[in-house]
Amino acid sequence: MTRKSILDRLKILADAAKYDASCASSGTSKRSSKNGKGVGSTEGMGICHAYAPDGRCISLLKVLMTNHCIFDCHYCINRKSSNVERARFTPQEVADLTISFYKRNYIEGLFLSSGIVKSSDHTMEQLVECARILREEHDFRGYIHLKTIPEADPEITHRAGLYADRVSINVELPTVAGLNRLAPDKDAGQIDGAMGRMGGDIVEAKDARKRFRHAPRFAPAGQSTQMIVGADAASDADIVSRASSLYERHALRRVYYSAFSPIPDASAVLPLKRPPLIREHRLYQSDWLMRFYGFSSHEVGAAAGADGMLPLDIDPKLAWALKFREYFPVDVNRASREFLLRVPGLGTRAVAQILSIRRYRLLRLEDIARLTVSAVKVRPFIVTADWRPVLLTDRADLKALVAPPVHNQLELFAS
């Protein structure tokens, strides 16, 4: 059999990596090669499909080491029983590709994952070896994100954190029942344990850096995870609750949500149709509410319907406000930051500006209009020096007044 060329394998393995969403790089420590030493650099802003402060689009090489896999997860296109074209890189080949692409100014970092070949330990050793080659032999100082394997030996996954800026372990599905049904080779307890160990190592490394200047960096951008949405029967409330638990127990930087996409020769246990992409968007908005707006998972879940699903036509913050109108209207000149953050249409920056301005004068409705995108959305939920909604907040048709216009989501391959 003729061995595939590097470019042919890159085409296969880069395409196979597109299903992994957890490749943002925000939060990494700054490395630089401006002093003439080393190759590559990285910034606090993201590298994969993100924008630097000066407006530049920054990207990374996102690829699998191999799409061969001994596991047979029903939702995965690279599963053992899948009829896909297979390919494989060596650690040296991935390192050479990364350096070659960097020198051509195509990328500024690497996101590396892999199917499980031979064994979990062997595959993890291959991933770590690639990162070692880049860091030690090429003195590469760009961003590296390694996808770690929970079934691998803890000592090997620990070494991954010594070379990578960020590590991630996918929980795959939001419920144990869903994981047992769709990924029989994976174990929820094992995944959770691996995340816990990695989180502990990150905390210990940060503490060591505070006490010892030359202590080694260990995954300075933290760890993240990804959940597949719509492959099982988990509701939005289940997903939000699971994400909140992961944030609290493992101090994750991010939980990514990836809408299930039907794959060729799919298993009969999978749904025939993917969920609407707007569902994924609403989950990201819910995630934002928990991380930056002070909402608990129970409060976000309360915004969902009786079936546990968030409304698709309005954002979860507005859904919560419409459901719990007794908390409104909020006086922008007197309310605490906690309550201002719950007003639909007011973001964290607008709230910070309100708190700053009201120290010197009373805010009027026109002032709030300048701080938000939609004054119409805000008006029923606030009181200002010259505005009081009176009975507007309690109107039965309030949703129709504040909800954005409905636009049908276009299908990319619709006939």
From TrEMBL:
Keywords: Iron, Iron-sulfur, Metal-binding, S-adenosyl-L-methionine. InterPro entries: Aldolase_TIM, DNA_rSAM_put, Endo/Exo/Phosphatase_dom_1, rSAM, rSAM_sf, RuvA_2-like. It holds the Pfam family Fer4_12. Gene3D superfamilies: Aldolase class I. Its cofactor is [4Fe-4S] cluster. It comes from the Bacteria. CDD domains: Radical_SAM. PANTHER family: ENDONUCLEASE/EXONUCLEASE/PHOSPHATASE FAMILY DOMAIN-CONTAINING PROTEIN 1 (PTHR21180), TYPE II SECRETION SYSTEM PROTEIN K (PTHR21180:SF9). NCBIfam families: rSAM_link_UDG (TIGR03916). This is DNA modification/repair radical SAM protein. The lineage of its organism: Bacteria, Pseudomonadati, Pseudomonadota, Alphaproteobacteria, Sphingomonadales.
